[in-house]
Amino acid sequence: MASITLTFIDPTGKEHKVEAFPGQSVMRAAKSAMVPGIEAVCGGNCICGTCHCYIEAAGGAALPEPDDTEAAMLEATPEPRPESRLTCQIPVTENLDGMVLRVPASQH
Amino acid sequence: MNAPAATAPQVDLKALYAGYDHLDPPIGVDGTPWAYFEQFRDAAAAEKQWVGWSEKHGGFWVVTGFPECDQIIKDVDGFSSTGVIFPKYAVTEPLMLAEQDEPEHMRARRLVNLSFMPRNVTQYGEAMQKAVHELVDGFIEDGKADVGRILADPIPAIVTALIMGLPAEDGPLFDYWTTAITHQFLVDPEGAKPKIAEMYAYFEKNIARRKVEPGTDVLSSVINAEVDGERLTHRELLGFSTVLLIGGIENSAKLIGTSLWRLGWDVELRRRLIRHPDRMQAAVDELLRYYTPAPIGRIVRRETTIGGVTMQPGQQVMLGLPIANRDHREFAHPDALIIDRPNNRHLALGTGLHVCLGSHLIRMEARLVLSEFLKRVPDYTIDPTGILKWTTGQVGGMSRVPIRFQPGTRRGTERGKGVDAWLRHASRA
Ligand code: HEM
Known about the structure:
The complex is a heterodimer of chains A (108) and B (429). Chain A has one domain: Ubiquitin-like (UB roll) (Roll), CATH 3.10.20.30. Chain A contains 2 helices and 5 strands. The longest helix of chain A has 8 residues. The N and C termini of chain A lie far apart (38 Å). Chain B starts with 12 loop residues before the first helix and ends with a helix. Helix content of chain B is 48%, strand content 10%. Chain B is α+β, with helices and mostly antiparallel strands and 429 residues long. Chain B has a single domain, classed as CATH 1.10.630.10. Chain B contains 18 helices and 12 strands. The interface between A and B is medium-sized, with 16 and 19 residues. The structure holds protoporphyrin IX containing FE (HEM). Protoporphyrin IX containing FE binds next to helix 12, helix 13 and helix 17 of chain B.
């Protein structure tokens, strides 16, 4: 199986290359690698909005639109943008390889 | 190294912990417990001892440090929420959400969470503004008022009625019931019981009505919410109504009351917020940090060592959020009210899985109340001849805020039933 690498740019601008696996969420991959600024305090239940990232480059994937619950949570984040996503709601698939995500300055 | 220790007078930290009673903190010359909280924080910092044992209420752990509180709140396996309120309130059932542990808590939280997100609560903004102006009309010609009683108290009750799809004129009933649960029960349990039964009966009726006649209110959307084929049961809906009353009203009234008091003497802050209304939202968060209304509790589930002490399963822990939110390890210049504070991660609304369900609602509510009030009464002072009162208990804050100002003119908007009922209630009590 080809490996899947995601790049997170943390709030200080530092890049973190993270290996991810199908079946995980993007949030889990970031948490396993302890990417600074990804808090994910609710553990992937889409109720806290603290795994928010901006998608800078989607790799080979065309991400499905956020569902209603995710969209409502994104509006509640400090600085939502069109490219905002909650990473707990994105399942890792092979075509995410090469995805670049920017961690916002604050999750609160 | 121990920066705060240099100025801290000799205090016996162990005695401070032993005497800590979250229901009854000592009130200082300014009429608030904040000098005591700051002294406590300085003593804890000097000895780097952020956890201690209180002898009050049968004994419990007190946690005064920010990282320690943060760690305990997030450790839901090690610490149970069944001890969130201590000593317990007079409700017969465990409090929905707040006193539930996983996995029951998450099941319920997922069903109600969406209804409290900004897109669902912004619908109440206009009604909140209107209520403020009606209340202000009631005293604007007098040149003086107790804005604790006549603004900070009624607004949260009126807003709770709105989000529950209840008649706004029932707001005073909520005040009566929450007082029975949170204050009267402690001193006169027999007198409080019939009131609590009356409250349950009232909610029963409302839930039944909303099931056949759903509206756009939050309660209706919660009744109809479905996640993975699950819905809330009737009993849960009853518990949910109760927690909105207990969790939503007193805290909010105290936050607004304390903020109105601060703005009454902090002329610089008031002027800044009038000139830059866009800063109000950040100011509300800083006021939440600075005057955190309430501590929260947990019960130890798994033996845990934290801050150098080992807690045993079954022990009660109180997280002193008012003190922890002044911890210099998390907040630079913790005793300065800095409305532009970057990344203000205060714990006033909790964090993690149990983070306040009403957090977006109360942020919007406090912002609108303070902004609209300042539009009508931009210049005022605390009335030195009036009675200022800080209420203690599970929730602390200014409840009587007598002010004086140049009389203004009424806007003459027709007074709604909610405000009308409240003014009758306030003049009786
Ligand atoms: C200034 C106002 C408020 C303050 C300071 C406040 C504070 C808090 C805190 C600290 C918690 C976390 C409890 C814990 O972790 O054990 C909490 C939870 C909660 N709050 Fe608030 N709150 C406020 C307003 C409101 C409002 C307006 C509502 C409802 C309309 C509300 C409903 C709730 C509920 C239902 C929970 C339990 C959530 C859960 O356990 O999942 N609160 N609140």
